[in-house]
Write a structure and sequence with these properties.
The structure is a homotrimer. The first copy, chain A, is built from 8 helices and 15 strands. The first copy, chain A, is an alpha+beta fold. Chain A has 2 domains: about 40 residues, no CATH class; about 240 residues, no CATH class. In chain A, strands 5, 6, 7, 8, 9, 10, 12 and 15 form an 8-stranded antiparallel sheet that branches. Chain A has a 3-stranded antiparallel sheet with strand order 11-13-14. In chain A, strands 1-2 form a two-stranded antiparallel sheet. Chain A is globular. The N terminus of chain A is likely disordered. Chains in contact: A-B, A-C, B-C. At the B-C interface, strand 4 of B face strand 1 and strand 5 of C. Chains A, B, C: One of its GO terms (molecular function) is carbohydrate binding. Chains A, B, C: InterPro entries: Fibrinogen-like_C, Fibrinogen_a/b/g_C_1, Fibrinogen_a/b/g_C_dom. Chains A, B, C: This is Fibrinogen C-terminal domain-containing protein. Chains A, B, C: Keywords: Calcium, Disulfide bond, Lectin, Metal-binding, Signal.
Chain lengths: ~325, ~325, ~325
């Protein structure tokens, strides 16, 4: 056995990127043997953007491949700059068709019509089903393995205009905020764990009594005041901005998954909370869908109980750290 | 050209696993040149779990990447322990909503409603369409390239409670069995080939006359007696447990794909067989869907023609070897 | 630092293929260091089949992995032989169920029913959503990242019988043709860019006045005359074969995406153009769907305004170069 020092200066690999390698790490000898650490393109050995940042010192926002604890490789978007960076995009919820009431594309509520026999709807808030791609996240619903795989402490939310391309997400977003209380440590480590504890299901409880946790947020774009104005005047009268709230229940016992940006104090949560189970009793099927009844008094009017066109036509991107 | 012996002691690769390599295999010289066999993480060079077991001596149940004959890389679950192991998960069929009659999610029958004009339904039993992920296989329908790519001899079936996570599939399953007669060698090598010969299509034939093959099974969990009890007393009167049967046809000429665990002797197969074409004439649209009419006399009652709640809410995982 | 010449003769990698490497490229020394160019299986470093051909001299039609500009790795089919080769399959459109009017599977028009409130339908002609697989492209709709990522000059179209397997696509196709005028350079570089300029949307304009570009094609299989005969005699009276036309508008202001093979001179484009928005006013919902009203006067009759069975049951595969 002959000792040899070789140095990988540059490794041109699938994906077309040249991954500069540390000579000391690139190839090392151990007792006459050879150990190679190869990172293929953006396929770095990390299970979250946080790990990517900490371990590989990755600094740019953008798309990266992660590897889940089960070995699943998937690409997602990393926000490496907000409040220290290390945020992993795990899901995106959008309203593909406000006039389609629990029809195809309503994966965050139900694609089965408004149906009391299907109270949990599609069930994607607390299962391991995945769909969509990061590049298509503002064009169709999106959920990746990070949603259930990453053990997180905090959440960040971006409201990005539908069809925006990922390089412009940050600059085109209309609202961005994040928690910094490490609340997930008390609620199952991620949304999968949280919603196992707070099922999103028609009839699971009643308004006020069974509301899930409300976590204060810090704004990275916008403020409680600008947040408030995206929803109609009636809605503003029954929520407090500056929070992200989980599992809201309305007057008729329909369940919604996330009130993103606000904490309900009233029971008409269908006008400002998103996602949900498979049944909304009031005026059925009119409130059934991913963005429930954002169009309560007309599409995008921002009058009465109606949300603004801006928030109605924005994808809600959910990040973990 | 200088000869050199180098030994790769450990190779840390994307996926975060340390793949111990055989020094003699790791790097070899051939006539002054160098040949390297690199296995990246779980991306081993195998097209089935059987090959993974035989070639790489892989012994643990779990998720692995396979590569199909066309070069498609996909992850699936390998059962490496049952009856010698080497079983590849190729599909999962579940009823996402018993009350949705041939609606979204009924990929193993039809997502187009009960329709005589669409007799073959979605056609996934004999096409090369794929969907879902192994980690989400109990949360949504699943089919991978192995379904049509792997040339198999036998089949194994697990009935696993919906939403169970893959590490608990085996322990939480309610019924498991497999064939050991190498029947696939006579029927096209896999389900794709078998269903090309026995199309799943309304009106293709009549009950009893055109029933597809019934293959005896050995039970790995349960027995013919426990299998029988998962279906209602009326159903028990017209099937024999201990088989897996392909392409059943009922009284009204509707076609079902698999009677998993039983061999029909009567013609009300909609109460204990799964999958199918796109049209069930009787009481339309009530029998149309992935689990047809398991709820014939009420959901999960296990009375009359109704199946038990346990079997109705279990995903049918299909393996090849 | 010791200089050493090593030669990788053969590299056996995931995917099971032995990638013969150029000794001079395989491993090279640069100033005492080592640079390795590894191409994993079919994961070559190319973002299009054209680049694959030019850079790696790839000559065979078949499935290859490409890497998009964002680093997304995806597999697709390359036509390496037609008119110099280098054609990348980016999409496939088929009619899954002529009797399902804008139902599940109508991703190239709308899966939401015929609805004036949803004029753009699913919107996939000008978004970054993707779906399906190349191996399943004749079994379900297909769109990959190349659709929006590749900057192309020309287009090629294959009409391939549904459910045909990719090794037989070319030989079983019923019609093949391509442009050679580099028209994409004037229209946004690809279909994504083109349809951003010519939105496919009910009510966007009127027949004749707002027709998008018609580009002459050369036939690789068939001719203007055989092309013509795939559509009914009434249709033949109002189009000119030998073109591919984008964004047609009919009498009732419904929009269709592509008239593949023809240039409309009349306004009943629903009988020979495919894809579209989410609303066809005439005889609603009868004209709504991926293949609109190919069955205008009966399914597959090739009489009156009806297209032939052959063209109705063929997938339209779209290639870029």
């Amino acid at each position: 056995m002959k000792k040899l020092v070789v140095v990988i200066l540059a490794l041109s690999l699938p994906g077309g990127r040249c991954a500069p390698t540390d000579p000391d790490v690139g190839i090392q000898y151990h007792s006459g043997g050879l150990s190679i650490d190869i990172s293929v393109g953006r396929h770095l050995n990390a299970s979250s953007c946080k790990q990517l940042k900490e371990q590989y010192n990755t600094k740019d926002d953008g798309l990266y491949y992660l590897t889940s604890s089960s070995g699943t490789e998937y690409m997602t978007f990393c926000d490496m700059t907000t409040a220290g960076g290390g945020w992993t995009l795990v899901a995106g919820a959008r309203e593909n068709n406000m006039y389609g009431r629990c029809t195809v594309g309503d994966r965050w509520s139900s694609q089965q019509g408004n149906d009391i026999n299907n109270p949990g709807g599609d069930g994607n808030w607390d299962n391991t089903n995945t769909f969509g791609t990061p590049e298509g996240a503002t064009a169709d619903d999106f959920k990746n393995p990070g949603y259930y795989d990453i053990t997180a402490e905090d959440m960040s939310v971006w409201h990005v205009p539908n069809k925006a391309l990922h390089p412009t997400w940050k600059s085109s977003s209309i609202l961005r905020y994040h928690t910094d209380s490490k609340f997930f440590t008390q609620y199952g480590g991620n949304l999968y764990g949280l919603f196992k504890r707070y099922p999103v299901r028609y009839g699971i409880g009643q308004c006020n009594v069974n509301l899930g946790p409300s976590i204060p947020v810090k704004y990275d774009l916008g403020s409680p005041d600008t947040n408030k104005l995206f929803y109609g005047p009636n809605s503003r009268g029954e929520f407090q901005p500056g929070f992200i709230t989980f599992r809201a229940i309305n007057n008729e016992r329909a369940a919604m998954a996330i009130c993103s940006g606000v904490k309900p104090t009233g029971c008409n949560t269908e006008h400002y909370c998103i996602g949900g189970g498979g049944f909304w009793p009031e005026a059925g099927p009119r409130q059934c869908g991913d963005f429930a009844s954002f169009d309560g008094e007309g599409y995008g009017t921002n009058l009465g109980w109606s949300a603004s066109k801006e928030i109605t036509e924005a994808t809600v991107l959910l990040f973990y750290r």
